[in-house]
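Course assignment 3, question 2. Fill in each field.
Student: A.L.
Task: Predict the tertiary structure for the chain below.
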Amino acid sequence: MKPLRDLSASPAAELGRDLRIAAAPITVFGAGYVGLVTAACLAELGHAVVCLDTNAARVRQLQSAEPPFHEPGLRELLQRHIQNNQLRFTIDPDVAVAHGLIQFIAVGTPCDEDGSADLRQVLAVAQTIAERMTRELLIVGKSTVPVGTGEQVQALIESILARRGLGTLRFSVVSNPEFLREGTAIDDCMHPDRVVVGSDGSDALAAMFALYSPLLKRSQQWMPMRLRSAEFSKYACNAMLATRVSLMNEFALLAESVDADIDEVRHAMAGDPRIGPNFLAPGCGFGGSCLPKDIRALQRSAFDEGVQLRVLAAVEEVNERQKALLAQRVMESFGGSLDGRRVAVWGLAFKPGTEDLREAPSEVVIALLARAGARVAAFDPIAMPAAKPRLSAYPLVSLANDPLDAIEDADALVIVTEWPQFRRVDWTDVRDRMRRPWVFDGRNICDPEKMASLGFMYRGIGRPRAERVAASYRVAEEDVAIGTSNTSATAVAPPITASG
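Answer field:
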């Protein structure tokens, strides 16, 4: 593979320079999370962008600059570039294919029942392009797809062009996987830590380099590679992140058994440069649209190739167990039955900064609590509208107006999502409003010492239980009392004080 400087200076880069200078028109197929963010950011870079979606209601909503999901900064980009006509939305495939010299495929690849990625939408877009294209195009795959999908797209387009008598019409297929994080997607797109581009042709790589050149500040960001390698890269990255999370959750359970504090352990781990600090926080399991789906699809792809990914199978098993952990602990604390108990749940989205409930641990927690007879009052600062229809199957579940409304007269509080506002609550007020000051913290946002000092029965993930912390207070206070009365003591241990 040619290095960055060679790509940017080669004759093959001529097309790329033309595209960059002319702000090439771009089409994006799919106005979901990836497609809409990609379209808005490309418009921000100066490209005239047409975004197609088959959902007419969604297109009408977007034409009014109303994003169909929460993502910080997205609404402002839509308003700005719809107003200046840099970004348009349509349901007409003829308009979409005729517009862009670069055509992005950013549609969904949900899991089939066997775990494999459903490629019907990707192949349908490829067919749509092939049936209408009349000039040379660069076709870019943004969707997360199994290795070999780009070659399927290539073969499908070639067969349709041949049937149309356009067998000599040139086009290129590129894999350009996304690495967007919900809640920071705009910043991730505009300030990428890496740009992975897979193609087996130098012209296509040169064009993609020119497309992304305004965003490339360091040569290390640009990662050209083979088409199949790029497709594999996205799955490999998500599998590694999921593995770190599940392994830390395993460590957390062991920490509880040996009376260690996983928070102290993870700081020691993060200090090792070979490990680093990211994705080391234990909790009540991961969710979202990517990690669960992608580890299943990767396992299925491996199975089809006769390879067994035992580690990923364990990662998935651990995660499913972890999602149920909080509800199981609440039930154990009340002897198994929750009939007549009121349980507050803080956090519904799978992570802060988004309203996404796909594969969210909260849904497992709430379902188990409700089936055990609990009356559940849930609150989330953003995800409540999305949660309402999903929770309608549970008559004992209600949505609270705010966090304090949720915990009013509650027998237990379960923290599922680490929204910043939950860290800032007045815990004295929380304690006084609850029937029983029992807190099950699935994200370790609380300080066990402070919770013990306030009289909570507190249990985090891999953290010391409140009763153990409280016992350490009593020992420390006794030591101080002894030290004060014994003037011959050479040293007096100070009392342990609660943090603020």
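Instructor remarks: The CA atoms of residues 45 and 214 lie 8 Å apart. The chain has 21 helices and 14 strands.
Grade: pending
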